[in-house]
Design a protein that fits this description.
The chain has 251 residues and is α/β, with parallel strands linked by helices. The protein contains eleven helices and eight strands. Bound molecules: pyridoxine-5'-phosphate.
């Protein structure tokens, strides 16, 4: 069988539920521990500027857990000086730089590396020199990929939100268009020496076509897994997602 993409489990929304009541339960770090036991290859967490889900102390506890379990922590962050200082101090194995707008409900689009190169490149370099592997969360376009390849980032993560929305709307033609774009973009990124990840809006139903892209090395999935954990339990939700990914690669 072809090698399987790694599954990074994004635990932000365990913290969303905790924060709805302002207490300590459910603890996202306990969720990360369960996810690791269930076979997550990595833990992803987004420290937002407004701290709407993860908090600073969560990130510290996650880093300690991931280090002791020998599982990479992938910290998602905006390209700001405050976040850079936190990431340099925390030293997670991986950092994914994402765009952030306070009023958005979730990360709605990719980072504009082409326009923001002069701002993003030094942040990427500082993180890399500090020992974190940098990924840029971008739309799958040639301009963004080429811009990303001229930074210190070693990874690009393609935003799959529009693909997921197209399928939600029943627009298979549009979804196929996005998939073809992902295939070509993944090839270009890989030819330029970038590792290729995908994430956002992925579910049991739509993950297969993305996981089947040969250059796909990692998938980062959060909202659906945490939502499905209500019905299946977190371990079974992760196991089922892994099963979908494995099936896609086997066929
Ligand atoms: N990858 C990145 C870079 C993200 O910012 C997010 C969360 O918005 C995800 C993956 C996971 O997306 P979702 O929660 O929709 O699975």
């Amino acid at each position: 069988m072809k090698s399987l993409p790694r599954l990074g489990v994004n635990i932000d929304h365990i913290a969303t539920i905790r924060n709805a009541r302002g207490g300590e339960h459910p603890d996202p770090v306990a969720g990360a521990y369960t996810a690791i036991r269930a076979g997550a290859d990595g833990i992803t967490a987004h420290l937002r500027e407004d701290r709407r889900h993860m908090r600073d102390d969560d990130m510290v506890r996650l880093q300690l857990l991931c280090q002791s379990e020998n599982v990479p922590l992938n910290m998602e962050m905006a390209a700001t000086s405050d976040m850079l200082a936190i990431a340099l101090n925390l030293r997670p194995k991986a950092v994914c730089i994402v765009p952030e707008r306070r009023e958005e409900r979730t990360t709605e689009g990719g980072l504009d590396v082409a326009a923001g190169h002069n701002h993003i490149a030094p942040i990427s370099r500082a993180l890399k020199e500090n020992g974190s592997r940098v990924s840029l969360f971008i739309e799958a376009t040639e301009a963004q990929i080429r811009a990303a390849s001229s930074t210190a980032a070693e990874v690009v993560e393609f935003h799959t939100g529009a693909y997921a929305h197209a399928l939600d709307d029943g627009d298979h033609e549009k979804a196929d268009f996005y998939l073809e774009t992902f295939r070509q973009s993944a090839k270009l990124a890989s030819d330029l020496g970038l590792e290729v990840h995908f994430g956002h809006g992925l579910t049991f139903d739509n993950v297969g076509a993305v996981a089947a892209i040969p250059e796909c090395v990692e998938l980062n999935i959060g909202h659906f897994i945490i939502g499905e954990a209500i019905f299946l339990g977190l371990e079974d939700a992760i196991a089922e997602m892994r099963h979908c990914v494995t099936e896609a690669r086997a066929s």
